[in-house]
Every structure is written in C-alpha cells, then in structure tokens.
Amino acid sequence: MKVIKPMMLGLLWKTYRRNGHRLSVTGTVCFPFATPDRPLTEQAMWPILAAECPEETVWDAGIPKDRGELLLSAHGYAYGGIPVETRRISVQVGSLRKEIALYGDRLWHKKNGEWIKSRPEPFCSMPIVYTRSFGGKDYPKNPTGKGFSLDPEESPVSLPNIESPLFPTISPETDTPPAGLGPLDLAWAERQSRTGQYQPGEIGTEPPELPANADWTLYNQAQSDQWLSGFWTGGESYLLEGLHPEFDRQSGRLPGIRVRAFATLDASRNRTFVEIPMHPETVWLFPHLEIGVVIHRGSMAIETDDASEVASLLLSAEDPGENRPESHYLAYRNRRDQRSPEDLSLYGDGPLLPLRLEDDPQANIGNVQYHMAHQSDEIGQRTRRILSKKLEKAGKSTQPPPAGAASSPIGEAQSSMEEKLRELRKELENPFSETPFQPGQFKTEELKKQMDEKIRDALSRIPDNALSKANLTREGPLSPKASMAPLKKDLENALSSTALKERLMSIDGSVPETDRTTVPLRPANGAFEAISGQVEDKLSALSDKIDTLVRSVHFFAPPPEDRPNAGRGRQKVLEQMKSSRNFRKWSLRGADLSGLDLSKCDFSESDLIGCDFSESDLTGSLFQGAWASHGRFLQTNLSGSKWDGANAGHSEMKGVRAIGASFQKTVLSGTTFEDCLLDNSRFDGADLSNISISRTRAKGCSFPGARFMRIEGALSPSSSQSDGQSERTLFRDVDFSGSNLEKSLFMKCDFLAVDFSGCQLPGATFLECCGPSTTFKRAILTKGVFAQSVQFQGSSFGSADLSGANLRGVDLSGSDFRGAILLGTDGSGGNWQHTNLSGVRAIGARFQKTDLRWVDGRWGDFRQAVFLKADLRFANFSGSSLYKGCVTEAQIDDSTLFDQALLGKTTITPGESK
C-alpha cells in the first residue's frame, strides 16, 4: 500500500474485524505547547514516544475506540524545586478534570495489630507510573504496584507514592483502585473484564471477531475517569499543575487542525477515491517536554483481511472551515502517481497542509522549486545545474525577466556566482572585520598584518572572474588560472590553530612595559580567546565553502584542447623529474602526461583537470586533494596510488589497473570504468553517482556506505541535454566478489552478469533495480532491502545470509537459494516460481501471498514460517520442517507435496481455488 502524507503528520494503518473486515487509519499530530497549530514532523515524534511511553506497554493499538480519552506520560514536581512530603497534581483538558496526590516514600508498620504509616520522605520530582501506585504481584488490578499485602506477618510494607484523593489507601489488605494518568496494561483486570466470552458457533474457520458480548472500551487504555462521552473536537483548552520542573502551571490549547484521509482502491475497483471520516480520538500529553500528540482515527469497510484492495492512502491536514474539495486531493494524488521529473514541487507538502503553512519550510522539504527560490547564494554549483536542466525540460526560460517585470525568486536563485566569489574574496581579505575589540586595547594591527600576509598571497593567485568564466553552463570551461587548492592549503597553514595561537601569544610581548600595569590581564585573555574563536570559526566556514567548490569542479566543462599548452606541461614535468618527483600544488591543467613513468610522484592538491595519463605508470603516486576531473586514464597503472579527497569526476578510465589503490572520499561522479582491475581498493565515502562500469573486476574492495545511483539532471558538462542519456546506471560484467558494500545504496541500477559472491552487504538497499542472473553466493545480505519493482529472476543466492531481509514483491522466479539462511526474511507478495529452496534455513520467514508454484523446498527448515494465502501448487516440501508454521488460506492441492515433512502444530487451511 502506497502512503502519501505530509511530514508533519504520522500515519499508521491496520486491519481488524468488527461486523466484517475493516481498515483502521490513524493520523498523528505532534505539537509543541507553544505553537499547537504548527506540528512537529513525524520523525521528531517517534523518538519522544520511544523514550517516554512505559516499557512493555503498547502506545496505541491502532483500533478505533468508541469514545475519546486522555493519556499522560508525566512527572510530578515540587513547587520551586523545594523538597516536599506531598504534592497535589491536577489535570484539566476541555471538560475532563482529574487530581492525584503524590507522597514521598512511606512504610506501613504494624503495631499492636494496627497498621501505622510513616512520615513521607521529602522529594523534588517523581515519575507518575503504576509501579508507584497501589498494587502488588497478587493484585490483578495492578500487578506492578506496591502497598498490597495479604500476609499478616509481613512488616514493614511499602505504601504507594501515588493515590487518588477520592480513594486513599487505608490498609495493605484494602481493595484500593490504583491511581495514575497513563495507560493500563491489557492483561490487567480492569481491561480484561471487557473482553467478553465466545459463545458456541462464534468461532469459525477464520480468525474471529471479538465476542459479541465484548465491551469495545477494551481498546481504551486510560482509566475510565479519563474518557470522554464522545470525541475531542480540537482546540480544547488545558490547565496542568505540578507537572513541569520550572512552571508550576501550564496552560494552552490543543491543535485545531483537522485530519482528513482518502483511500484509493485498486484497478479492479476502478481506482475509486474514497474519503475516510476521521475524528480526534486520543490525546497524549508530555508536560515536562511541553509536547503533545493528538491521534485522529477513522475506518472503512473492506473486503479482504489485509486491505489488499486499497492501493494507496492519502493523509492531509486542514484548519477548521477550510474544507478543500475532494478534487484537490485527487489531483495531488495523480501528480504523485505520474512522478513527472519536470514537476519540481512534486514532493512538496504544501497541498496537504493548511493554507497558512503552504509556505512553511517544513512543508516544502521535498519541493525543489521552493528551495531554489528561497536559498541564498550558498546554493551549490551542482544544484544550480540540476535546476537549470529541469527548468529547460519543463520549457521554462532561465533568462532574466524583461526590464520592469517582477523579479522571479527562481531567477534570483540562479544569479551569477561572481557576487559569491567577490563576497568570498572580501571575506578572506578582511578576516577580522567584525572583531568587537578596539585596537587601543593591544596591538592587533601588527598581528592582523602578519596573518593577512599569507592569505593575500594566496588570493593573488585567483583572478576575480575565475569561476564566473564558466557561466554555470556545460559549455563554459574553468579558467586555466583558477585553482582553489593552493588557497585552501595556505589558509589552513596561515590560520591553523597552532599558528594562530603562536601569533596571538606575541600579544604579551607587543604591549609596552609602561603599559603593562594599566592593561588588565583578564580582558587581554578574554580578547585572546574571543579573537581565537572568531578566526577559527571563520576558517571553518571558509573551508566549508571551498570544499563545496572543490567537490563540484567536475561539473564545469574541461578546458578546450590546447596542444601547445599540453606540450608545455609535459616538458615542465620532464624537467622537474630530473631532480625531484614532487609536483605538489602544481598547475598542469590539460597537460599531456601519457606514456611516462610517474610512479611514486606527489601530485597532491595539484590542478590536473583534463590531463592525459594514458599508458603512464602512476603506481604509488599521491593525488590527495587534487583536481583531476575530465582526465584520460587509458591503460594506466594506478596500483597503490592514493586519491583521497581528490576530484576525478567525469574521467575516462579504460583498461586501468588499480590494485590496492585508495579512493576514499574521492569524487568519481560520472566516471567511466571499462575493462578495469580494481581489486582490494578502498572507496570509503566516495561519490560514485552517475558512473558507468563494465567488464570490471573489483574483488575485495571496500565500499561502505557507497551510493551507486543516477542523479537526474547531473549530466556530463560535455554532453548535451538532448542526448538521451539513460536515467539508470548500468553494471555490465562486473565482479565485486569479496567486497565490503555494507549499507550501500543501488538505485535505478541494471546488473548484467554482475558477481556479488562473498560480499558484505548488510543493510544494503536495492531500489528500482533489475538484475537477472546476478550472483550473490555466500553474500551477507542481512537486513537488506529490495524495494519497488526489483527484479532478480534467475539469480543465485546459494549459501547467502538474507536474515531479516525485505524481499517483498521481488521477482525471484527461477533463482537458486540452496543452503541459504532466510531467518525472518520477508518474501511476501513476490514471484518465487521455480526457485530452489532446498536445504534453506527459513525459520520465521514470511511468504504471505507469495507465488511459490513449482518451488523445490525439500529438506528445508521452515519452522514458524508464514505462508498465508500463498500459492503452493506443485511445490515440493518433502522432508522439510514446517513445525508451528502457518499455511492458512493457501492455494494447495494434490500437487503440493509434504511427504515425510514435520507438520507438528502446523496450521493448514486451504484457501479458495483460483
């Protein structure tokens, strides 16, 4: 089921039975007390719930309730933080009001046959939980509490810390209702009494509904004095006392937001768009965090027990009285279904939120057009190029508006980087321009001059229009003189923490002896620390800016072919090699360095854009931080070379031998790898987007966290926009065997004859990938995710470990899983026809609605596996263990073989014939 919702709302759905099958839809609104009508994101809500809700307690059952209720996860606090022996807590939300009394630790002492209470110990804060309320292990209303005892010899006995003023504790033997504000456990007496009992004939062949005499308030978790007679309306006021460490009284109101839900039925039901009536049902408050959650709920009748006829759910929020037409949401659903790449606002949440929030940044996290219109000049070069391509695809002009026309936010966002470079230059030239100290306090001018000297020297190497010459288009080459690497290094040398402190320590010597008695030491030290922090902060910010430019240089076009310049660069290198192999920080842009022995040379932080290293020996050479984009590496030996932090994007690597090379954090975006040998190389943190790779071996490599994906719009600077470049990444005849690809992402990738044998792929994701006949033998794919139309038919997973992997909906027909580990693997809804599952360990695996026809499952371990509504015709499970398995409503007939299979405690109920 597809879910469409804004990030400010949470959505859960669940099927249940009440007068037939029904689908329950839950929408959550997590709100701060200060701004109740501007919800927090769902991502912010879940960590709060995980930390605050009582352990071993279900936060919400997901089943509609017949009446609303109020729940709190709270602590009681002494007023002003002064310890007290007792404290009265009060809660009022709308028409609900409740009080409880908190006491410090007390004991019952038995004296002359009577129970005597000790004086409470003072306390400052206390969690309001049922372990501190009246109860005990033999008290069914609260087995976790304290104070209850039937042993007349037991003394002393702890008293509860939490009581209701209406029902004070009289003695350990008294039946006293436990007091609290949170949820009651389903197994406790108060809720268990509402379950009812089945009567003869109520239990059929399928899981039954609740007994006819059950009380539906079973699903109300709070005590009955926290229930409503109906439901919340939204906007109710609240007053809380004693529940915050700083504020003794908290007042406010609940959100007035109205949640709406729509279901789209599947194609067999004409994709009918149906609204599900919703109402605010449950309110959770976390007073000490100043946060609350309102749970909105609704339900609809369905035909199946798993809501398989519902194709998608759409959730939205409105302010009272807005009442957008159903057609508004239908149109948005259609936009999301079409997934047009030209629609830059496609994933913006604005259309699903109240009108007043449409321009809120949180509502536009996925709206590319919004961000381009609202970001400052810090927008990166890559983002600008992608936007430009998208706008051109959409037929929108990127030219400035005519004179007198209203300015466009997008046009402003696409303004030239000349201003950005001027500001950066100004910022570098005046690193102390904002210092708050007066020069009369001590001699900072000399210090400033010393520190500026190296910066200005570095700046002199960069022309004002260095990057503006590129004009932010594919056709614009970088200026041959443009080089930020020397600037970056000199900045680091000039403003390093050590150098800075050495210079600032000279302040003491710069103050004349006659002045030392009048200059307070503490202000001087304060000035020292302030300037030190200011400069280091500025260095960090500038370094970030420069790093962004360094990692984006491959998006500029390479310099035009210039044979004389290429020859001059070659001659410079040959001359230098007569005495040294150090080319650190050299500018060799476009040089012809082919056919040379450049082994063990140092090209770190050099400008090598467009260089030709074909047939050269670069073994053991250093390229850390170098600019080497658009390079030619034909039949080049890169074994043992180090490229960490370099940019070699859009390079041509054909026939390259790079055994044991290091490409950690290297930009390789858009690079072509053909007939390469990359064994035992490291690509940790490398940018591998938009690469093309074929006939390449990468055995024993390290790719942790790598992202192999096609970034739409990020074309090569030298390619045209209309060249029909594929939006998918192709891996043809690539050997990754034995490599570490932990938590890697393969998005929109096609695999042809790719070998992942023995790879470490835990947590890896294959999104919209196609890889028939791919090899995963002995691979570790634990908790891997194969999502959205993934096809791996005819692939080999022999002896692989796919424990906990998500294979839902995957086409694995004809694949080989012999000896594989499938513990808890979910293969529901997939096509597993003709797969070989012999000898697998598939304990707890799920094959719900999976097509398992003609499967060879002999001698497999399928204990506790679920085959609900699976198609098992012509399947062979002879000799296998299906102990405690679930084969409910499955398609089985005489062609399904269970010869010599272990079927103890296995539920087998044939489904309806198709």
From TrEMBL:
Residues 392-421 are annotated as: Disordered. SUPFAM superfamilies: Pentapeptide repeat-like. It comes from the Bacteria. The lineage of its organism: Bacteria, Pseudomonadati, Nitrospirota, Nitrospiria, Nitrospirales. This is Putative pentapeptide repeat protein. InterPro entries: 5peptide_repeat (IPR001646), DUF2169 (IPR018683), Pentapeptide-BTB/POZ_domain (IPR051082). It comes from Leptospirillum ferrooxidans (strain C2-3). PANTHER family: BTB_POZ DOMAIN-CONTAINING PROTEIN KCTD9. Residues 404-413 have a biased composition (Low complexity). Pfam families: DUF2169 (PF09937), Pentapeptide (PF00805).
